[in-house]
From TrEMBL:
EC number: 1.5.1.3, 1.5.1.50
Any GO MF annotation of the entry: dihydrofolate reductase activity
Name under which the protein is recorded: Dihydromonapterin reductase
Pfam families xrefs: adh_short_C2
BP terms from Gene Ontology: one-carbon metabolic process
Keyword annotations from UniProtKB, A to Z: NADP, One-carbon metabolism, Oxidoreductase
Free-text function comment from the UniProt entry: Catalyzes the reduction of dihydromonapterin to tetrahydromonapterin. Also has lower activity with dihydrofolate.
Recorded superkingdom: Bacteria
């Protein structure tokens, strides 16, 4: 019997893709969700990754993804809620729609997927299953320019403890709360210098530190309801 796959939402690029590739390298079957088709997906498919299209900006889109997930897998070893939209706050008429969109991708999608996929996680033949919420350091601190993003990440962080209590002892539910991990195209030298200065470690570590933290959770049978900081000591500066 083949091992149960690990689902990573938003796994077509950057941190999610890095973790998908590392999990495949460690011998895990992987399913990712993606929103936009692109050439990189063919490389992942060539490595055996199952790719499911998903747009979490509507409840119908989330439920449609869940239905196709259930057609694609009869069990899951883990779910990593990685999909995210780092949208700055909108002004005026767009403010409400922006908040609602971030609520759906950061909170409603993880909530509904966790509820509907519980049976898949419990069907895993391994003794432990995991749900991992990828949140953000700003969930605890707030953000002047990304208030809706930070608030919806805070909601995702709170759900970590609710689902951990609901799903124990069969399923562990934890969060990883990164600060700056990798830059975006267009980040200039001034931005990079300022961003580095915000943490005690003063580096841009790259996605490997996220995989190390995910590996730690997956390999440990005695962690649940926890939020693991991955922020270089942002709180110390
Ligand atoms: N990068 C960093 O330094 C930091 C990252 N984080 C968190 O880590 C995680 C990974 O970060 P990163 O790799 O930079 O993330 P990205 O900004 O690259 O987003 C990951 C994926 O989310 C998908 N996505 C966005 N909106 C939707 C939606 N409405 N429906 C479905 N999928 C959607 C995108 O899919 P597609 O591309 O196919 O449209 C994208 O590929 C995120 O949760 C992020 O908030 C936290 C702190 C720092
Ligand atoms: N979905 C995303 N969330 C976040 C991103 C990103 O690129 N995509 N980037 C950050 C920044 O690195 C921030 O941590 C810098 O202070 C935060 N979240």
């Amino acid at each position: 019997m083949s091992a149960a796959p690990i689902l990573i939402t938003g796994g077509a690029q950057r941190l999610g893709r890095h973790c998908a590739e590392r999990l495949v390298g460690d011998g895990h079957p992987v399913i990712i969700s993606y929103r936009r088709e692109r050439p990189e997906l063919e490389e992942l498919r060539g490595r055996g990754v199952v790719t499911l299209k998903a747009d979490f900006s509507t409840e119908a889109g989330i439920l449609d993804f869940i239905a196709r997930l259930k057609q694609s897998a009869d069990s899951l070893r883990a779910i990593v809620h990685n999909a995210s939209d780092w949208a700055p706050d909108s002004q005026g008429d767009e403010a409400g729609a922006n908040f609602e969109r971030l609520f759906r991708v950061h909170m409603l999608a993880p909530y509904l997927i966790n509820l509907h996929a519980r049976e898949l996680l419990e069907a895993c033949v391994e003794p432990q299953s995991d749900i991992v919420h990828i949140t953000d350091f700003v969930a605890q601190k707030g953000s002047r320019k990304h208030a809706a993003y930070a608030a919806t990440k805070a909601g995702l962080d709170n759900m970590t403890r609710s689902f951990a209590a609901m799903y124990a002892p069969r399923i562990q539910v934890n969060a990883i709360a990164p600060a700056l991990i990798m830059l975006n195209a267009g980040d200039n030298e001034d931005y990079v210098a300022k961003a580095k200065s915000k943490s005690a470690m003063q580096i841009v570590p790259g996605p490997g530190v996220v995989y190390q933290t995910l590996r730690y959770v997956l390999d440990n049978r005695y962690i649940t309801g926890a939020t693991l900081p991955l922020d270089g000591g942002r709180h110390l500066v």
